[in-house]
Write a structure and sequence with these properties.
This protein is mainly α and 135 residues long. It has 4 helices and 3 strands. A 3-stranded antiparallel beta sheet has the order 1-3-2.
């Protein structure tokens, strides 16, 4: 994040410095990148297109203050609980689907078996009737 590092501790950052830092020569592309970083809340500031500088209000840090850690831990624990709930729900759904699949296959096998038996009995009956009719 060379732009963030360049902006840290600065009030104004010249576009020329950002171009050198990023290797982006096109001003529009550089401005688009700054806008993306503003939307991502990495930077807060104002772009001055005419004077070609970025006025830095705040810059996100890679490091967290000690007093922020309990809050971050709580947020991560909430996310973990949600993930566990989703995992359990998915596991239940998979079990339900496997049970339904098994029941459906059992039904199809039983139906096919009955159909085969009925067809065999029908053939035997036709065969007996045919031989009785010839006598």
């Amino acid at each position: 994040m060379c732009i963030r590092d360049r902006c840290r501790g600065q009030q104004l950052v010249n576009f020329e410095d950002l171009r050198e830092e990023t290797g982006i020569d096109n001003q529009k592309q550089l401005e688009d990148l700054l806008v993306e970083m503003i939307y991502a809340e990495i930077l807060k500031g104002k772009i001055n297109q005419k004077e070609e500088y970025f006025k830095v209000y705040t810059c996100a840090s890679r490091d967290y203050r000690q007093e922020e850690l309990p809050s971050i831990k709580l947020q991560l624990q909430k996310i973990l609980r949600k993930v566990e709930i989703v995992q359990n729900t998915l596991a239940q759904k998979v079990d339900e689907m496997n049970t339904n699949k098994s029941e459906t296959l059992d039904f199809i096998r039983a139906r096919d078996k009955e159909r085969i038996i009925a067809e065999e009995q029908g053939t035997k009956l036709v065969g007996k009737q045919g031989s009785q009719g010839q006598s």
